[in-house]
Amino acid sequence: MTALPTLDRAAILTALGVLFEPDDVIELRALHKGRKRTDAGYFDSAHWADLADHAARLSALGASVYVTLNPVDPQLLGRYHNRVQGCADTTTTDTQILRRRWLLIDLDPVRPAKTSATDAQLEAARVKARAICAWLKKQGWPAPVIALSGNGFHLLYAIDLPNDDAATALVKGALLALATRFDDVHIKVDRSVFNAARICKIYGTVACKGDNTAKAPWRLSKLLKTPPRMLVAQAQLSALAPVLEPAVNAAHTPAAQSFSLEAFLSRHGIEHTVDVHENSERFKLAACPFNSEHGHGQAAIFRQPTGALGFKCQHDSCSSKSWADVRTLLDGPPRERAPAAVKPLADDDQPGDRVTLLTTERGVLVACEHNARVLMFRAARYADLYFDTFLSRMRIGDRDWSDADDLAAVCWLQSENDAPRFTLAHTRNAARSLAYTRQRDTLREFVEALPVWDGVPRIKTAFHDAWGAPDNALMQAASSNFFIAMIARAIQPGAQVDSLWTFEGPQGSLKSKALRVLGGAFHAEVSAGVGTTDFQRELRGLWLAELSELDSLRGREASTVKRLLSAPADRFVQKYALHAESYPRRAISVATTNEAAYWRDPTGARRLIPIKCGEIRPDLIAARRLQWLAEARQLQADGATWWEFPDSIRAEQEARQCVDSWEDAIANHLTTPACKDSFDKDGRVPSAIVLRDWLGLEPSRQGGMTGPRLGTVMRRLGFKPVQYGTNRIRGWQRTDTDARNQIEVF
């Protein structure tokens, strides 16, 4: 015997905090070695400390201690209320789970039953876990919680799915896909852990299978990595099935696929619970079908990973009964059974979409997109082909897929597979289809791979330190909000970001270079005009979209500029595509300018965040950019906002407004004594008098854009348009406030 591992109560509490939310109710379950005894209890978050105490106590007694991985119906608290019931006769069933929160990928070494893993076996499981984690990352999956189960490794991916048949099928299919791709003779992905009421080792307790020996010791289960909770999308789960390694001679017999054990049990009203026994699903029956006195747990139907079914009752009188006997008892002899209805294949599940290659009756490979896709999937040279959802481009490795790659692929298909009829169109469509099943988000991957923030606050003073901006409350808010907004758009595509950070400084002051250093490959200058489809296309694949010298805004209506800068998504037809799609924005719009007054929106400049630059230091930006972004990631995860600025920003925004010369002329005229004679007793003045007497514009010069221009100026000066008198004179009446001091509200 070797030394026993030390239980870690603090680790148990940490695991509960990682796996569950404050309102969750959890079942604790302990399975005792060598005895058919199960202890169980239900705990709310206020009693997690009690749960940890019970878990440590039971583990010290040699029991294997588990918790339900998904939250249970809170009413179950009334079963064993914040306590553990010894020899519990009832535990949680699948229907009593509220939602699915986790996808468990359980990697165990192949070894004799009731033995612990050797160090070599555990290391093989570690290598397999890393391989799966790396492959899923390439498919665009976020980082998982990683844990040592004691004899293997757990990868826990965050999901948020309802507890229904569709979700069960989705999880089951995902595990099957991973097992098919990664299983070998030494390490297996446990395919049976798909059910909603799945129990999982509570980390911090001891894995104690068999005896504790030097070669196969007991180990403490523990969490290894706990990244921020990022959800795996339902589409990503669904995408696993199409990328299965094609089986060359897979048999697809409708008769074999038509029988459903779940439907059989439901049809006959057989109550049961589901767990796992020696890598097979075990359907524990409420009563033996051959003798109802053989109660719960004494009879069970087993389903192996291959789909083969078996039956076992612990009573001698039923020891000779098999699954075939159960089926005959309930459904009658095979020849008397009604043929099972075979579900027709859906349009998207035709045989041509299956993973077998299509051949003619003579065995000649058919030249088509399906076969091209299967062959490319099997080829190691295309293992790194994927579609980057951030860049919206097909890529292979670290470069874009090109026309030359299409040509090389069709030549390879024709020569290596003795199939000269493959065409360039076949190849392009197959490559695109294959890439879409391997989607990645390189911006999200970059953010998730950022180093851990070292705890030193930096982003509030980043604009002052690296751009030479003033060190005041406004610049601190502008700097902090800028980096948090970047993270928000990276993590939450389409997050609302209305602001336009504008870096001001003379030509040659390194404004654009600083942004290039900060954004790296995710930065580019946008040359297309705001409002055009080209502008929307150029935003795709950018994190920092620079409007250099504000050229993209020139000549555009102010309302159009505001609407397009604040849009959370763009909808347009990609080049060479047939259908319009909506693309959530990932880019933060930034501008550079050497002008003092450049904002031409007469209604206000609320979206403008002016940054007056001093000495810009690209070297400091390069040195600190990762920690700036890491700090922003932490703040954004903690709930920090990016849209609140101090009131002092209004004066800065007003100072950047381009003022019409008429505005100064009218404002000056309003201060003269003679101006009073222009107004009637209700404070109204005709537009004709304003144009002729105040601005000196003769009637012959009035027209065209004179009216809209005057309207813009008068509104900014605090007037509203009116019509009055029997002749419906068009004029202006002063309001209580000057529009130049108002805040634009949208």
Describe the structure.
- By secondary structure, the protein is an alpha+beta fold.
- It has 5 domains: 9-243, Alpha-Beta Plaits, CATH 3.30.70.1790; 254-336, no CATH class; 354-441, no CATH class; 459-655, Rossmann fold (3-Layer(aba) Sandwich); 661-741, Arc Repressor Mutant, subunit A (Orthogonal Bundle), CATH 1.10.10.
- The strands form 8 sheets. It has a 5-stranded antiparallel beta sheet with strand order 4-2-1-3-9, covered by helices on one side. A 5-stranded antiparallel beta sheet has the order 8-5-7-6-12.
- Helix 1 crosses helix 2 and helix 15 packs across helix 18 (618-637).
- The longest helix is centred in the N-terminal third of the chain and has 20 residues, at 119-138.
- The model is unreliable at 242-258, 339-354 and 737-746 (pLDDT under 50).
Q: Enumerate the spans where pLDDT stays under 50 for 5 or more consecutive residues.
A: 242-258, 339-354, 737-746
Per DSSP E runs of 2 or more residues, the count of β-strands stands at 30
CATH topology of the largest domain: Alpha-Beta Plaits
- CATH homologous superfamily name of the largest domain? RepB DNA-primase, N-terminal domain
Strand proportion, as a percent range, falls in: 15-25%
Structural Rg: 34 Å
Q: What is the end-to-end distance?
A: 73 Å
The CATH architecture of the largest domain can be named as 2-Layer Sandwich
Strand order of the largest sheet: 4-2-1-3-9
Q: Judging from the principal axes of the Cα atoms, what is the shape?
A: elongated
The level 1 CATH classification of the largest domain is Alpha Beta
Whole-number count of domains: 5
| Percent in helix | 25-40%
- Counting DSSP H or I runs of 4 or more residues, the number of helices is 22
Question: What is the makeup of the main sheet?
Answer: 5 strands, antiparallel
> Mean pLDDT score, rounded?
83
> Structural class per helix/strand content?
alpha+beta
